Amino acid sequence: MKSINMTRVLTWVVAALVMCVTTGSGKDIANPESGRVKECRAKAPGKFVRLDKDLTIHYQTAGHGDINIIFIPGWMHSSEVFVRQLEHFKGSNDFTAIAYDPRGHGFSSHPVEGHTYQQHARDLAAFIKALNLDKIILAGWSYGVTEQLSYINQFGTANLLGMVMIDTGPDIAGESYNEWVWYLRDDSDEYSRYFTEGIIEYRDSIIEGFAAYMLEDVSSENVAWVKKITSRCSSTVASVLNATAFYLDYSADLIALEGKMPLLYVVSEWWEYAAEPWISANTPSAQRTYLGKHMMFWERADEFNIVLDTYLSQFLP
């Protein structure tokens, strides 16, 4: 096991918190009552719901059906990434699409504490309760899948109809990338360190590299769009989320859903080599599609939405 220099880690955290409050990306977001936050929230495209004294969640909706599809964004992203799904469900009489900004992301509150996907799942439960939602289909993307599986792990499936997993498996680290994981457990290639440490030390280059990984069309316009969205998540929050997610494995929770509710996987084409063996062995009845790269739901929205509509049709009379 690699040793950890805690002095160095604490130095990074303190430096990033100071930067968050004073300069650069995430300016003033540590203070939820700052003038900048109030100004930004006035420009937010959606609605707000207060979950407790420290947390107000920003969310967007489309449609007005009885079945609620909750889209959960991934690492550093917000409800903005699901703009083409919200457009798709606009005017729907069957479904209500809901996309929200987790704590520390987008236009939601940016508290100092609570930046784990386990806490995000508890926030999701409080969000569902506050909006009095039932007949729910969870649709997580990237680490949003981790969040929705953490929700099931903690709160069960009583109010859920189905699950959509977009380009992430249930386990984050493994012995081999053939296990459909993001990282190697020993981090021998330092890929986990690249994101955990790098987002604090080299934020711009990390986000640009991540955008290149996620997008088929790495145009300056598309990269700028990603950078705009991720600018509303501080480096400290991003680092803590990535570091703590490393240890999560919800394989048992996902496997337990086999045959109990309809499952859909939409996975990037390059990850089919690892995803298909896992899905076939553990949730063989699940629908799955391999499409584009990591942000296929945005870049190939028409194709993605057709796949989603086909899956959703089974919930209609």
List the helices and strands and how they pair.
Blueprint: H1 6-22, H2 35-42, E1 47-52, E2 55-62, E3 67-72, H3 83-89, E4 95-100, H4 117-130, E5 136-141, H5 143-155, E6 160-166, E7 173-174, E8 183-184, H6 191-196, H7 198-201, H8 203-214, H9 220-230, H10 235-245, H11 251-255, E9 263-267, H12 272-282, E10 287-290, H13 296-299, H14 301-312
Parallel strand pairs: 3-4, 3-5, 5-6, 6-9, 7-8, 9-10
Antiparallel strand pairs: 1-2, 2-4
Structural overview:
The structure is a single chain. The protein is α/β, with parallel strands linked by helices and 317 residues long. Helix 4 packs across helix 5 and helix 8 crosses helix 9. It starts with 5 loop residues before the first helix and ends in a 5-residue tail after the last helix. Strand 1 and strand 2 form a beta hairpin.
Shape: globular
Q: State the distance separating the first and last CA atoms.
A: 55 Å
Compute the average pLDDT.
90
Radius of gyration: 19 Å
| DSSP helical segment count | 14
Largest sheet, if any?
8 strands, mixed
Number of strands: 10
Q: Helical percent range?
A: 40-55%
Poorly predicted regions: 1-33
What amount of the residues lies in strands?
A: 15-25%
Task: Classify the secondary structure makeup into a structural class.
Answer: alpha/beta
Sheet with the most strands: spatial strand order: 1-2-4-3-5-6-9-10
Order of helices and strands: HHEEEHEHEHEEEHHHHHHEHEHH
Would you kindly provide a brief summary of this structure?
This protein is of the alpha/beta class. It has 14 helices and ten strands. The protein starts with 5 loop residues before the first helix and ends in a 5-residue tail after the last helix.
